[in-house]
Amino acid sequence: MDLSGCTNITALPAEIGNIVTLQKLNLTLCKCLLHLPAEIGSLQNLTHLYLGQSGIRMLPEEIGKLCALEELSLSGCERLEKLPKQIGMLSGLLRLNLSSCTDLKELPPEIGNLGSLQKLSLNSCTSLSRLPNEIFELLELQSLDLDYMKLLAHLPAEIGNFHKLHRLSLNCCTRLNRLPPEIGSLPVLQVLNLVGCTGLKQELPAEIQKLAKDNNVYVHREDDSITVEGPKNPSFKLYSMTY
User: Fold this and answer.
1) What pTM value is reported for the model?
2) What is the pLDDT of residue 231?
3) Which residues face 71 on adjacent strands?
4) Are 177 and 151 in contact (CB under 8 A)?
5) CA 173 to CA 170: how far, in whole Å?
6) I need a labelling partner for 178 at 20 to 30 A (CA). Which of 2, 201, 204, 214 fits?
7) Looking at the domain that runs over 1-141, which CATH code has it been given?
8) CA torsion sign, 124 to 125 to 127 to 132?
């Protein structure tokens, strides 16, 4: 069901819970939609829920009943301040997009229960200053986007838990003043974005350079980037703005 761009929608009827075969619900750009009815939890076959750039301020607790949900997008929901703890019940969720949720101040610890999650986007969450420790329990994570998280000053050593991580993006995290050496223990990392991280004054940890060496890679500079690639891990790239 595609209701994207329906700017006059202020609420969904409770009867939407009767469409039990519904698999996709697109409410992108429904800017007057402030909440979802509790009956949304009856959509047991829903796999994709798109709420990007809507007026959503909070999600109902019943969101946790969407046992088939694979993708949840809240990108650009600027009024969203928090997520319900029941989001941790979405055991089959593969992709969670919270980018540009500028009022989101914290993530619930239950986010660590999303054991199937492969992609997490938090870019431009400008009110989010830290990641909960539980986030580092997402052992299936392959892509983590933290671009423009301007309050993020620290990454813990537990980031080394992400043994399946292919992409880590930290562009313009201007308060980030160091990288944990444990990034060097990410065996399948392909892309590390650091463009605009003006707080990183020191050299990159030796462990990151050891990662390059262990993969028999070489480093060359092109324009404002450093690209790392080689025969064992030909797609590993490190982008770092030079000043």
Assistant:
1) 0.88
2) 44
3) 48, 95
4) no
5) 6
6) 214
7) 3.80.10.10
8) negative
Where do the domains of the chain lie?
Answer: 1-141, 163-243
The Cα 71–Cα 28 span in angstroms is 14
Exposure class string for 162-175: b at 16+ Cβ within 10 A, else e? bebbbbbbbbbbbe
45: its two tokens: 């076959």
**Residue with the two structure tokens 């605009």:** 196
Q: In sequence order, which residues have a C-beta less than 8 Å from that of residue 64 and are 6 or more positions away? A: 41, 84, 86, 87, 88, 89, 90
3-state secondary structure of 171: coil
- Cα(237)–Cα(217) distance, rounded to whole angstroms? 10
**Count of Cβ atoms closer than 10 Å to residue 104 Cβ:** 21
Residue with tokens 């429904």: 30
H or E element in which residue 210 lies:
helix 206-214
pLDDT of residue 235: 56
Mean pLDDT split into 10-residue runs, the chain, 243 residues: 90 94 96 94 97 95 97 96 96 97 96 97 95 95 96 93 92 90 87 85 75 48 40 56 44
Closest CA to 14 of 47, 45, 36: 36
What is the residue whose two structure tokens read 């770092």? 240
